[in-house]
């Protein structure tokens, strides 16, 4: 993990620069002024990954990060102010735990923390050697001492102590939604901003009497609150881990108007265009849906041209993006039929150039 340059005093100017950048990218499309949702200045990041550094001739291991572009000069750290308070509380206790155990420290090379606003925590320890019974016994004692779930990973091995997910709670429009967030799967790193992002999407979609198509639904992060705004939802996701988490989240929250299928956005485009049938859509009558809106939250590459063309069919396109450049490219493809009526900046990644943004496009 690269080391960010943490400087709370510079944060307002950095956020202003990001706002200007988004404004400039969306200016060709006559977009309104971006709504800006800032981040806590510190302790905002709910997950963190550290390499461990061992000096030659020493058995002591330290948390290490690296400057961007330099993988050979470690910056040794004892705390990480952008990470959640729970991660900072766990860091020295975990370090003391592995230093006190030869079974835990031997060939340990990486540590990952996953925490939640609700206070849950999971730690993953990665090794360059097989994990044995001695490792498991010491790992179970440490997990109980730290009150965390713990996952041990090595080539061909994955040992879970406790659960392989954390539990989160996020509030949207006065309702609390519970989420399982699996180890190794994508989750939004900035919980406070994620909550603002969900609230914005909920508001701009509005109360609707028709149906919603959701592409790239992940673990159901947006699916849960948006499903309460429409008649029913058809949601797609390709990752099996995320699909399983989304199904559990729908059940845990009593959301019953969502049908989830494990298809990529490209495959669903082919299905809706009747290019070819898919066994995973057996029993789902696509023609029974009265889609009025589509929600997309694609990877950094944005939507491929065919999927982007598919979204043109809908009256409303609600688009969350982690890459404003590919967002602008997709809007350019849609600009002749849809106009930007709302846009927002969500500062998920303070002290970096990255930003999350959202737009609502409506048919002209």
Automatic annotation (TrEMBL):
Active site (UniProt): 322 (nucleophile), 322, 356 (proton acceptor)
**EC number(s) given by UniProt:** 2.1.1.35
What GO biological process, any one, is recorded here?
tRNA methylation
Per UniProt, what is one Pfam family of this protein?
tRNA_U5-meth_tr
| Transmembrane intervals | none
Reactions that this protein is recorded to catalyse: uridine(341) in tmRNA + S-adenosyl-L-methionine = 5-methyluridine(341) in tmRNA + S-adenosyl-L-homocysteine + H(+); uridine(54) in tRNA + S-adenosyl-L-methionine = 5-methyluridine(54) in tRNA + S-adenosyl-L-homocysteine + H(+)
Q: Which UniProt keywords apply?
A: Methyltransferase, S-adenosyl-L-methionine, Transferase, tRNA processing
Cellular component, GO, one term: cytosol
Which GO molecular function annotation, any one, does this entry have? rRNA binding
Check the record and name the InterPro entries matching this protein: MeTrfase_TrmA_AS, MeTrfase_TrmA_CS, SAM-dependent_MTases_sf, TrmA_MeTrfase, U5_MeTrfase_fam
Please name the HAMAP family in this protein's record: RNA_methyltr_TrmA (MF_01011)
The record's comment on protein family reads:
Belongs to the class I-like SAM-binding methyltransferase superfamily. RNA M5U methyltransferase family. TrmA subfamily.
What does this protein do, in the record's words?
A: Dual-specificity methyltransferase that catalyzes the formation of 5-methyluridine at position 54 (m5U54) in all tRNAs, and that of position 341 (m5U341) in tmRNA (transfer-mRNA).
Q: What is this protein called?
A: tRNA/tmRNA (uracil-C(5))-methyltransferase
Instruction: Identify the species of origin.
Output: Pseudomonas indica
Give the encoding gene's name. Answer: trmA
């Amino acid at each position: 993990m690269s080391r960010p340059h943490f400087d709370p005093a510079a944060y307002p100017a950095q956020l202003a620069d990001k706002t200007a950048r988004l404004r400039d990218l969306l200016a060709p499309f006559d977009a309104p002024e971006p709504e800006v949702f800032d981040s806590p200045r510190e302790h905002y990041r709910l997950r963190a990954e550290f390499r461990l550094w061992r000096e030659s001739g020493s058995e002591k291991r330290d948390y290490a990060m690296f400057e961007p572009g330099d993988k050979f000069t470690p910056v040794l750290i004892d705390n990480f102010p952008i990470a959640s308070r729970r991660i900072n509380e766990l860091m020295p206790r975990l370090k003391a735990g592995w230093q006190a155990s030869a079974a835990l420290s031997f060939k340990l090379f990486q540590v990952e923390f996953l925490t939640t606003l609700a206070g849950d925590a999971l730690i993953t320890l990665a090794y360059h050697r097989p994990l044995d019974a001695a490792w498991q016994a010491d790992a179970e004692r440490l997990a109980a001492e730290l009150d965390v779930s713990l996952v041990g990973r090595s080539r061909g091995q994955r040992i879970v102590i406790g659960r392989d997910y954390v539990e989160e709670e996020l509030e949207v429009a006065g309702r609390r939604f519970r989420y399982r967030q699996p180890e190794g799967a994508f989750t939004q790193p900035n919980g406070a901003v994620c909550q603002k992002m969900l609230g914005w999407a909920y508001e701009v979609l509005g109360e609707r009497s028709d149906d919603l198509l959701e592409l790239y639904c992940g673990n159901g992060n947006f699916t849960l609150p948006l499903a309460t705004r429409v008649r029913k939802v058809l949601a797609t996701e390709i990752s099996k881990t995320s699909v399983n988490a989304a199904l559990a989240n729908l059940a845990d929250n009593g959301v019953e108007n969502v049908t989830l299928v494990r298809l990529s956005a490209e495959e669903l485009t082919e299905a809706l265009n009747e290019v070819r049938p898919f066994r995973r859509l057996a029993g789902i009558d696509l023609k029974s849906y009265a889609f009025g809106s589509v929600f997309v939250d694609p990877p950094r590459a944005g939507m491929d041209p065919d999927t982007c063309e598919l979204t043109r069919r809908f009256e409303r396109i609600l688009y969350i993006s982690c890459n404003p450049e590919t967002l602008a490219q997709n809007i350019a493809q849609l600009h002749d039929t849809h106009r930007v009526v709302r846009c927002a900046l969500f500062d998920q990644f303070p002290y970096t150039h990255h930003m999350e943004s959202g737009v609502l496009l409506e048919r002209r």
